[in-house]
């Protein structure tokens, strides 16, 4: 066979290249008619006339080349060779660009932006009608979807929802949405997500249990090792902190200390403690507090009763050596009125009277062996606390608030087999001042179109609490406090020249300067127009 130069003329031969499957090309050409033809070779590469790969395909006029890369352009030419291994010149060159395969419709990106906003980004332009159909989205555990917005690119979706709970895991499912070509997702899209806790912890309530114990109630579970570390607390003027005990909820920490003094202003600084998510308490977090001195007692009748300081191991009657074995933290360091056990049969509703120099909470411990409490004690609050004596007698504790002046207690109505009641008093003018609550990173009041009323802090409170609110524009607003019967207790008028966060400190008094009773109260913020928002708060004493 002679050399096949010119063998592939444009008239005698045609070469074709076409794509049937991803990453492959089939090359075909017209057969050569010479009798000594032995076969063909395919030359190809990604540059024109510069082939870096060769395949001897034998005596066939069509061949499928695989393992090619989508998105690249490939160039092909064919030669023929005879039985003597003489090879022709290259045929005319053909080329083909392998387009990327059609991508399935998927969600390319998801983000939980804040407790009421989710973002989805699709990989294709979407059909607006299917995207706006709220029933195509579900959240479990159930969170209501309020609306769906689509941006002009037709790929970004914003889902507005009811408020999620920070730290809780949810599942979003998307189905039945379509792209502009009408293609649906092969399978429903499902993603688990949660909003991470980013807010520093804070103390919701500080309880002054007694002169050697204060109790911190944090707003969320804390890291146990950090809150147990006594070096993370500092009291000024200096009071040694002996231990830090945390309860099973990891929210309540009791600090055992050296003795405090009455009517001295102390500052407790907390640093280095973290919540269960690792958020550290705000820098220079300091609570100011003052232990209220007990009231001075005068005009005591029966006159043989005696004010005293009773601790565990001490006697508690004026006529017996019965001794106390257990006093709960909240009732230590109080003033006791030592009563007489011989008076346990008294029934006079005005049996015990005395005067107090300032408002106080009076506690009565009633023998639990008596089935019925006397009528005068029925209106008192049962605290759930108990005091025990060394003989196993359990006194159930009842409490009631008294203003400065006279206090009247009735008789015990007891029996031979029971004991006379016990009486304790605590001043109620203790002072506690908290730092500002840390800002919620997810809070969007800066862009709110209307005013916002926040929950008071602390809550429950005694006697002071702070009520905060956000005003979205200059306004004159009215903040009113009501009892549960709707009667107005106190009112404040606030004139705001600019938007911002404002606060009112309520000292627990009514418009006459008198302390209000324990219980639930309503506070209401009213602005111009139709704005009105109400929340509840609890006063404890």
Structural account:
- With about 550 residues, the protein is an all-beta fold.
- The chain has 5 domains: about 15-95, Immunoglobulin-like, CATH 2.60.40.10; about 105-195, Immunoglobulin-like; about 205-290, Immunoglobulin-like; about 295-425, no CATH class; about 445-540, Immunoglobulin-like.
- It is about 0% helix and about 45% strand.
- The protein has 2 helices and 39 strands.
- The strands form 10 sheets. It has a 7-stranded antiparallel β-sheet with strand order 23-25-31-27-29-28-24, with no helix packed on it. A 4-stranded antiparallel β-sheet has the order 4-3-6-7, with no helix packed on it.
- Mean pLDDT is about 90; it is low at about 1-15.
Topology of helices and strands:
Elements: E1 15-18, E2 25-29, E3 37-45, E4 53-58, E5 62-65, E6 73-82, E7 94-97, E8 107-114, E9 117-122, H1 128-132, E10 137-140, E11 145-150, E12 156-161, E13 169-174, E14 189-194, E15 203-210, E16 213-218, H2 224-227, E17 233-236, E18 241-246, E19 252-257, E20 265-270, E21 285-290, E22 297-301, E23 306-309, E24 324-326, E25 335-338, E26 352-356, E27 360-367, E28 381-389, E29 394-402, E30 405-409, E31 422-427, E32 431-433, E33 452-453, E34 465-471, E35 475-483, E36 488-496, E37 500-506, E38 519-526, E39 532-539
Antiparallel strand pairs: 1-2, 2-5, 3-4, 3-6, 6-7, 8-9, 9-12, 10-13, 11-12, 13-14, 15-16, 16-19, 17-20, 18-19, 20-21, 21-32, 22-26, 23-25, 24-28, 25-31, 26-30, 27-29, 27-31, 28-29, 33-34, 34-37, 35-36, 35-38, 38-39
